[in-house]
Amino acid sequence: MRAFDLVSPTRLQDVSSLLEDGKGQILAGGTDLLDRLKERIDQPERVVDINGLRELHGITNGVGLSLGSLTTIADVAEDGRVRDAYTALAEAAASVATPQLRNMGTLGGNLCQRPRCWYYRSNDYPCLKKGGHECYAVSGRNKYHAIFGGGPSYIVHPSDTAPALIALGAELEIHGAQGERMLALADFFQGPRENLLSENALGLDELIARIHLPKPKASTRSTFLKFREKQSLDFAVSSVAVALEMDGESVRDGRIVLGGVAPIPWSVPAAVEQLQGRTLSSAAIDDAAAAAVEGARPLDENGFKVTLTRNLLRRALQQLA
Ligand SMILES: Cc1cc2nc3c(=O)[nH]c(=O)nc-3n(C[C@H](O)[C@H](O)[C@H](O)COP(=O)(O)OP(=O)(O)OC[C@H]3O[C@@H](n4cnc5c(N)ncnc54)[C@H](O)[C@@H]3O)c2cc1C
Ligand code: SF4
């Protein structure tokens, strides 16, 4: 690991000046950043430990719910308000990694964690995402890579909480040198064509302060389902987050977001359209699941993800029915 200065600001307004020269990186729970430092994938001159910023901790009630970016994933999974009204988020948080990692890892860190592509994580492969000239996954091992939105990099976004938060309509409160701005989480993530070296719209000087969830309508039903190879702990090979607003037994509106299949959480409005105005019958569910995977472009080794994702969505919708 390369030596770095550790700074621990206690005022939110001091953070951006520690980041804006591009030589600093934020440390929250450290479950992702410390691995990257040890592997020398990142070699910042300055690590900015934000754990002393009291306003970034904890969950508070507002119009909906406001979650500080330093809220641990375990606290998100166990909070009664989240479990009652934002079921998909509680289920997604509970599916992250292991109890130890959920106790250390934070919600902000989960949204900003870097890709898990094995070429990216190995110092032996100077791939496109690290400023190199080649994507090794294209002709290499690509079982876990993207089936949607890939090129020139084929990472999948690793966060489980992101698809659930997008399905539930989350907004981010972002702080930077220019002050505060709000951004829908659905607009936060950026694919490799738009932004090859990072996965989101944060400026160098910015951090996520809080995540705001709107109050769901009484008729909203939501769920999150994930397929992972190891049941003890594993990233999603594919996941689905569904939030549906019902009108009696019919679907009025909603959001369906896929995880583990694209460089960003992958919204599939075409699947929702198949459900609108219909009850959650087998025929409607089959139509939505088929629409969700339309346009998938698998690589050599990951064609199985198309069937897997279609069936996961089917199962999630059956559960909501
Ligand atoms: C073995 C293992 C298994 C895992 N399995 C899963 C899984 O199944 N599902 C899943 O979703 N994740 C999984 N993870 C990832 C884990 O959830 C993340 O590492 C964790 O959520 C990151 O949170 P953190 O607070 O530790 O972030 P850190 O490691 O502190 O930071 C992660 C990144 O986010 C940046 N960052 C942190 N907070 C902010 C902020 N507020 N604003 C802007 N940038 C910020 C940091 O600079 C860094 O680049 C796994 C990780 C490991 C090691
Ligand atoms: S998929 Fe992305 S991170 Fe992986 S090797 Fe290709 S460019 Fe690098």
Describe this entry's structure for a reader:
Helices cover 29% and strands 21% of the residues. With 321 residues, it is α+β, with helices and mostly antiparallel strands. Among the domains are: 54-112 and 156-213, 2-Layer Sandwich (Uridine Diphospho-n-acetylenolpyruvylglucosamine Reductase, domain 3); 220-320, 2-Layer Sandwich (Enolase-like, domain 1). A 5-stranded antiparallel β-sheet has the order 4-5-8-6-7, with no helix packed on it. A hairpin with a 2-residue loop joins strand 6 (171-176) and strand 7 (179-184). Helix 11 runs antiparallel to helix 12 and helix 12 (282-292) packs antiparallel against helix 13. The mean pLDDT is 97. It binds flavin-adenine dinucleotide and iron/sulfur cluster. Residues 25-33, 69, 73, 96-97, 101, 104-106, 108-110, 112-114, 158-160, 202, 207-208, 233-235 line the site of flavin-adenine dinucleotide.
List the helices and strands and how they pair.
Elements: E1 5-7, H1 15-19, E2 24-27, H2 33-38, E3 46-49, E4 59-61, E5 65-68, H3 73-78, H4 80-85, H5 87-94, H6 99-104, H7 107-112, H8 118-121, H9 136-139, H10 161-167, E6 171-176, E7 179-184, E8 207-213, E9 220-227, E10 238-247, E11 250-259, E12 266-267, H11 269-275, H12 282-292, H13 304-320
Helix pairs in contact: 5-10, 11-12, 12-13
The structure holds flavin-adenine dinucleotide (FAD) and iron/sulfur cluster (SF4).
